[in-house]
Design a protein that fits this description.
The protein is an alpha/beta fold and 449 residues long. It is 34% helix and 20% strand. Helix 2 runs antiparallel to helix 4, helix 4 crosses helix 5 and helix 11 runs parallel beside helix 12. It starts with 33 loop residues before the first helix and ends in a 12-residue tail after the last helix. Belongs to the GSP E family.
């Protein structure tokens, strides 16, 4: 069990819950709700609360923690304990009903709670809770109202429990935050910052991270993008991936890292861990927020500096948002080729302006940032989410000659407009990347320019 985590306290006995659109009152005759009889969990009953408390007590058993028993962490509930909790406290006539109850109890204790069932719908990538408790899903079919509701108190308790489970605090002193929980990235923000009520956003990871060829199969002109991206990876080019939230930056970066040769060591630095490359040697570092007194926090910029001492072959920054860009660009200029990161921008040609804005937060002068970025970055890939899905729309190469004029300029190599893919003057620079980037040799990091 993670240090400092404790199960959500039981709901006060005197409180009554008004059923919403997705809740059903238990049937008085059998003690089982119609939803349970139909194979779906209904509202939390007294038996479910007892089962939950019993299971929480077993998971918190010091003997289990000392023995290192599987399931001692809150992310994993041993099936045998869930089954025993159901057997003791819940009526289950059939094995199917028992399985539904086991899953509901585990979800309520260590999973996504009332958001778990929407999260299991095939094709769903995001589950969202609005201030009025409405539960939405997003995915291949777009934004959809599930018809479910989570009341204000339950939403707040769920948000606090999920972030605590991921090692983050959420309270009046820190009313927003995000964490990695049960394979999903959970972000929450409390009132009064969030109007109406607690807002929860859950970004779901794919059960199996897709490979680069899998992604390219669904892209417009995928074979062109695939060849260009593999060329950049094999050439150890320094790459920035830009795009809006939900455009697929992290998914694509994970797929690119899966293409890295097996004998290279990848170190990832993220605010909240999301990258899951299929690679045999990945070291993941995650930033940490401070405690209630503001002490103990470890920002992204510090982790970038620490990563440089850990012998990286490839240094990856999950997302550059602010002052850490100075350390990231400095790392790219130390011979650690093949670095990559993501950032938010409107287009590839807008990335220089975005870097200048972040560099200002780090106290970098315009001239210093221009020199650093022009020397560090080789290519910029921009993604968008359109009717065709999430896919690349622009690849631009950095014009090295512009740095001698004191400017940081990028030149388009490929641009997608509608369904037409147009080559640009940066194509020649793309072909020359292999000679500029150099190759790793003899365990050393070389930069041949």
């Amino acid at each position: 069990m993670s240090t400092g985590w404790s199960p959500e306290p039981p709901r006060p006995a005197g409180r009554r819950r008004t059923p919403g659109p997705s809740t059903v009152r238990p049937a008085a005759s059998s003690g089982r709700s119609p939803a349970a009889a139909a194979g779906q969990p209904g509202p939390r009953s007294a038996g479910q609360r007892r089962a939950r408390r019993w299971l929480a007590g077993r998971l918190a058993d010091p003997a289990r923690q000392r023995s290192g028993a599987e399931g001692a962490r809150p992310e994993a509930v041993p099936p045998e304990l869930a089954a025993e909790a159901v057997r003791r406290h819940l009526p289950a006539v059939t094995p199917q009903e028992a399985a539904v109850q086991m899953r509901a109890v585990a979800d309520d204790l260590t999973g996504l709670g009332p958001l778990a069932d929407p999260a299991r719908i095939p094709g769903v990538t995001d589950v969202l809770v609005d201030g009025d408790g409405t539960v939405w899903t997003d995915g291949m079919d777009g934004l959809r109202d599930t018809g479910r509701r989570v009341d204000a108190e339950d939403a707040r308790r769920l948000a606090i429990r999920l972030l605590a489970q991921g090692g983050r605090r959420l309270d009046e002193g820190q009313p927003f935050g995000d964490a990695q929980v049960t394979g999903a990235r959970v972000h929450a923000i409390l009132p009064p910052l969030a109007a109406g009520g607690t807002q929860i956003s859950v970004r779901l990871a794919a059960p199996e991270p897709p490979g680069l060829s899998d992604l390219a199969r669904d892209w417009p002109h995928g074979e062109v993008w695939l060849a260009a991206l593999r060329h950049l990876v094999q050439s150890r080019a320094n790459l920035l991936i830009s795009g809006a939230t939900g455009s697929g930056k992290t998914t694509l970066l994970s797929a690119l890292l899966s293409e890295v040769p097996a004998d290279e060591r990848i170190i990832t630095v993220e605010d909240t861990r999301e990258l899951r490359p299929r690679h045999g040697h990945v070291v993941s570092l995650q930033a940490r927020s401070g405690n209630a007194e503001g002490a103990g926090g470890v920002p992204l910029a510090e982790l970038v500096r620490q990563a440089l001492r850990m012998r990286p072959d490839r240094l990856i920054v999950g997302e550059c948002r602010g002052a850490e860009v100075a350390d990231f660009l400095a790392a790219m200029n130390t011979g650690h080729r093949g670095a990559a990161g993501t950032l938010h921008a409107n287009s590839a040609t807008d990335v220089p302006a975005r870097l200048f804005a972040m560099g200002a937060l780090a106290g970098l002068a315009l001239e210093a940032l221009t020199l650093q970025a022009s020397s560090a970055v080789d290519a910029i890939l921009h993604l968008e989410r359109t009717d065709a899905g999430r896919h690349p729309v622009e690849l631009a190469l950095v014009d090295r000659s512009a740095s001698r004029e004191g400017t940081f300029r990028v030149v388009p190599a490929w641009s997608l407009t509608g369904r037409a893919l147009t080559p640009g003057p940066g194509r020649d620079l793309l072909e020359a990347v292999a000679g500029a980037a150099g190759r790793r040799g003899g365990g050393r990091h070389a930069l041949d320019r």
